[in-house]
Design goal:
Blueprint (H helix, E strand, L loop, with lengths): L1 H12 L5 E5 L2 H9 L3 E5 L9 H12 L4 H14 L2 E8 H4 L7 E4 L11 H13 L6 H8 L5 E4 L18 E7 L5 E5 L15 H25 L2 E2 H10 L9 H15 L6 H13 L5 H13 L10 E7 L2 E6 L7 E4 L4 E4 L12 E2 L3 H5 L13 H4 L3 H11 L3 E10 L5 E7 L1 H7 L5 E6 L7 E7 L3 H15 L4 H6 L1
Parallel strand pairs: 1-2, 4-5
Antiparallel strand pairs: 3-6, 3-8, 6-7, 9-10, 9-13, 10-11, 12-17, 14-15, 16-17
């Protein structure tokens, strides 16, 4: 009887409608469904995509002498405790350590003039004309190629810059201080959208706007900040997320909050009414004004978490239109790079993907810190700018929890029941899961001097994360299995 009771359920399986769970190739599930079976497709992939070298590296890291999880907790706790604060505005050459009259900072990892993409070359040309070091495009290009200009990443100087990220000696820069740890960060003033320097435009109109920022906006803002006092940017970003921003490509709320914060002070400075009116009109017309405040906020928060021994948390992601690069806390200032990707998105009238330059800019520092694309669920309207549907924004954010170390309770997302933003990208999780950080961004024209042509989403190259994990295993992992067996 016992034998019959065991056989009966097995026999019943073949008399019931077939129900299947398929792991792996969707084509198997499609064939079953076509035959009338009920099937559930599970999106399963082997860890690290089955890459033997990466799997070995991850095993060596786990077996190594360093407690990576403890190091990561230390690093992400520093990030979560950060208090980015806007304290002042100054002239780049006077406040950025190491800046000289012939230094030009740019976005992304290091890149030479010869390898620069079109919009970055356009930004350099405009910067040299603005500084008075060249009179026109031809002179600027000759000077840039001469070896007399020092090109360096913004990140190496504690700065960040959107798109081309050009910072030159005379440019006014916001000064941020991490009130919890004392380190500083810098960024230029956002010019607006369209034909602007950061998108590689360098027409007379662009240069005139930069000079107005230097001669009119800068001195008034300096007075206003001195009278107002420091601004707690963590609080402002938190409010902006509650109001529909994500801190990267949607900054309407953040810009409005800064106007509300500074407007009463501006009108009490005793400056000519016409000057204050123009400044307020400039701020009001530029929805991206807040971007150059959110970026250095994220930069000074992340820089405090650098150089934590044994931490695999990413402290910088950046692109220069040629390369995409990442830096890992436990690996110092070393860049791990891959080819900059093309952006998939929406284009302004008259432009298409054929006009686009590859991915460019330091603005992915926002995603690195846990806002921007990581907080798209807080800003469903962003999809009208970068493409997709509101449910896509929620899906992007939800997926980022799988590659991060913590949730930032200060940056809450209403659409996710006020869950904290996914924060602290672990390079190990990126390669193990195969999930790449989601990045939303603007699109620059591939030729110098044109400007912005669209906006969209971009996937970073996988190899920079892979290379970082392999280097991390060399630095902190157990010796390779072959070395251990020989010993």
């Amino acid at each position: 009887m016992a034998e019959q009771s065991r056989v009966a359920p097995v026999a019943a399986l073949f008399k019931s409608p077939l129900k299947a769970v398929n792991l792996g190739l969707p084509s198997f599930a499609a064939n079953l469904a076509a035959a009338g079976a009920e099937v559930v497709q599970v999106d399963w992939r082997p860890p690290a995509g089955g890459d033997a070298a990466v799997l070995d590296a991850l095993d060596r890291i786990d077996a190594g002498p360093i407690d990576v999880d403890a190091a990561n907790k230390q690093a992400v706790d520093i990030l979560l405790a950060a208090k980015p604060t806007l304290i002042d505005i100054g002239v780049a050459a006077e406040v950025i350590p190491g800046m000289t009259s012939t230094t030009i900072l740019h976005s992304g990892p290091p890149v030479t003039w010869e390898r620069m993409c079109g919009p970055m070359r356009g930004g350099v040309i405009g910067g040299l004309i603005y500084e008075g070091l060249a009179n026109d495009r031809a002179e600027a290009e000759a000077l840039a190629a001469s070896g007399r200009i020092t090109f360096a990443p913004c990140h190496g100087y504690g700065a960040v810059g959107p798109m081309a990220g050009i910072v030159t000696a005379k440019m006014p820069v916001w000064i941020f201080e991490n009130a919890a740890f004392g380190n500083r960060a810098y960024a230029t003033v956002n010019e607006g959208l369209g034909k602007v320097l950061r998108y590689g435009a360098f027409s007379d109109e662009v240069i005139a706007r930069l000079r107005w920022i230097e001669t009119d906006l800068y001195p008034v803002m300096k007075k206003a900040l001195k009278r107002h006092g420091p601004i707690d940017m963590r609080s402002v970003i938190a409010q902006a997320l509650q109001m529909g921003d994500e801190g990267h490509n949607r900054n309407r709320a953040g810009t409005s909050l800064i106007i509300r914060e500074l407007a009463p002070t501006l009108v009490q400075l005793g400056e000519p009414v016409e000057r204050i009116v123009r400044i307020l009109e400039f701020l009001n017309a530029n929805d991206h004004f807040f971007l150059n405040l959110s970026m250095p906020s994220c930069k000074c928060a992340l820089d405090a978490a650098r150089n934590v021994k044994g931490s695999s948390m990413i402290v910088a992601m950046a692109r220069n239109g040629t390369d995409f690069g990442v830096q890992v806390s436990g690996l110092g200032d070393r860049w791990f790079t891959g080819p900059a990707s093309m952006v998939e998105g929406l284009y302004l009238p008259g432009y298409s993907a054929a006009d686009a330059a590859p991915d460019i800019g330091d603005s992915v520092i926002t995603e690195t810190a846990g806002i921007g694309g990581f907080c798209m669920a807080a800003a469903p309207a962003i999809v009208k700018f970068v493409g997709g549907a509101p449910q896509d924004a929620i899906a992007y954010t939800t997926r980022m929890y799988e590659i991060t170390l913590a949730e930032n309770g200060a940056y809450q997302i209403p659409a996710l029941d006020f869950r904290g933003s996914p924060t602290g990208v672990d390079v190990r999780k990126v390669v193990e899961t195969g999930i790449l950080p989601v990045v939303n961004t603007g699109i620059a024209h591939k030729e110098p001097g044109v400007g912005m042509v669209g906006a969209g989403l971009v996937k970073p190259p996988r190899n920079c994360f892979r290379d970082a994990v392999l280097a991390f295993a060399e630095a902190y992992g157990a010796p390779p299995a072959s070395s251990r067996s020989e010993s």
